[in-house]
Design brief:
Length: about 170
């Protein structure tokens, strides 16, 4: 009986224009959904399927710390610009900040495309910092020789071949 009453009430609100049909997903509205809830859903449905899921999950966790309790409709360009400036003050690289802004944008894209919520993307219009050029770090021949000698002196017989392989192929992890 309660479900029928809720359905009639929701249909009445849609018919009167109080809410748009696409603004209801699992009983959620633009005003009632927090950014933290949206991030959690995005992480569970999108991030875990990606190759870079670990790094994106860490970014989403950090974003939940900054914006998590705020309603998705309360986050605007000014708050995103403050987030960017805060990250810049913490001496994060331009590329890292772009990753954070992209994550926010992807969450809002999910809200629009999959949840049907009519909410503007607050990242649109916020100037992104220039990506920092990648670092090229190479060991000197002297450092390579010292590293190999230390590995050969180790009791682990496979350490030296593994390190040689890593050096030759440019492996980082």
């Amino acid at each position: 009986m309660e479900a029928l009453k809720w359905a009639r009430n929701t249909e009445t609100q849609i018919d009167s224009g109080q809410i748009k049909p696409n603004e209801v997903r699992e009983g959620r509205t633009v005003e009632g959904t927090t950014f933290g809830e949206a991030c959690e859903c995005y992480e569970n449905t999108h991030t875990r399927l990606k190759r870079n899921h670990r790094s994106e999950a860490l970014i989403l966790k950090a974003l939940r710390g900054w914006l998590g309790t705020q309603a998705i409709c309360a986050i605007d360009q000014a708050k995103i610009a403050n987030l960017r400036d805060d990250l810049l003050s913490k001496v994060r690289s331009g590329t890292t900040i772009v990753h954070y802004l992209n994550a926010v944008s992807k969450v809002y894209q999910m809200l629009k495309d999959e949840w049907g919520l009519n909410v503007p993307n607050p990242v649109t219009g916020v100037k992104r910092p220039r990506p920092t050029p990648p670092r090229v770090v190479r060991l000197s021949q002297k450092a390579v020789s010292a590293l190999i000698q230390s590995c050969e002196a180790s009791t682990e017989p496979l350490l030296a071949p593994i390190v040689r392989f890593a050096l030759e192929t440019g492996m980082r992890r």
